[in-house]
C-alpha cells in the first residue's frame, strides 16, 4: 500500500509541475513576451557550436579509448586458425573505423555549418542519382566483400581440409558451475555417455559397459600438446553453456541433449605466451594492483570460460588450460587414472 501511495504522489507531482509550466506559458502570452519556445538566430548559433564541440569530443574520446584500451586486448592467437580470425576482425574493424572517421566529422560539421541563419534559405533537392548510387552501391559492395570473406574464413575454420594428422579427441563436459575434460585414451575413441547414467562417482554418465570407455581419462584440467590438432566435443548436463577459449579464438555452445564440436591446433605453449611483451606488461599491472591489496602474485594462464549467463556462479565457471610440449603432455598423462581405474 505504501508503494502504491508513493506512485500516486509522484504522478500527481508530475501533473502539478506540468500545469505550473503551462500557467507560466499562458502568462507570458498575456504579457506579450516572446515565446520561450521560439528558436532565434542566437539559439541556432549556440546549438551549432555545441554540436561541433560534441563532435570533436566524440572523435577525440574514441581515439583516446582505442589507444588506452589496447593494452587490455588479447595477445597473439595461440592457435593456427586464430590468425585467420584475427585478420578477419582487424579488417572489419579497419572498415568500420574508417567509415566512422569519415562520416562523424561530416555529420557534425554539416550540423554546425548549415545551422539556421537569418535570410538564408535551404536548397530544395528532390533527387540526385549520383548520390543515391554512391551511398547505395559502395556500402553494398563493401559489405558483400566482408560477408564473403567472413563465410570463407568460417568455412576454413570449421572444416580444416589440410589436416593430415588425426585429431586428438577430448570431451568437454559442462555443468553448473564447472567444466570436466574426458580424454579418449589410447584408442582415441570416447566411450558412450548419457546424463541418465549419472550415478555415484560416475558423474559424467559414462557407460561402464562400453569397452571404449575403459581407457578414457577424466580430468579437471585441460592439457594440450602444442602443434597437435585437437577435436573438442562438448556436452552439457543442465542448461546451455558456451565454451569460450579466448586465447585460441574458440567458442561453441554446449546444448543439453545435443553434441557440438570444434577442432583447432594449439600453436603457442603456456611457457611461450608468458614471454610475450604484451603479456609481461599485463601481468606486471595486475600484480601491482594485487600487491597493494596484499594478494598473491598472478601468473598468466590459458582458461576455458563459460560465455553464457548460466546461473548465479557463472562468473566462476572456468578451467585451466595448459599447452605444453609432447613430452610434457605424455608425462602428465602417465600420471592420470583411466576411467576403469577410477571405478
UniProtKB/TrEMBL annotation:
Q: How is the cofactor bound?
A: Binds a copper A center.
Q: Where is the Cytochrome oxidase subunit II transmembrane region profile domain?
A: 65-161
List, for all copies, the residue spans of the domain called Cytochrome oxidase subunit II copper A binding.
165-335
Q: Which domain of life is it from?
A: Bacteria
Q: Does the keyword Translocase apply?
A: yes
UniProt EC number: 7.1.1.9
Subcellular location(s) of the protein: Cell membrane; Membrane
What does it do? Subunits I and II form the functional core of the enzyme complex. Electrons originating in cytochrome c are transferred via heme a and Cu(A) to the binuclear center formed by heme a3 and Cu(B).
Give the family per the record: Belongs to the cytochrome c oxidase subunit 2 family.
- Name of the protein: Cytochrome c oxidase subunit 2
* UniProt lineage: Bacteria, Pseudomonadati, Bacteroidota, Flavobacteriia, Flavobacteriales
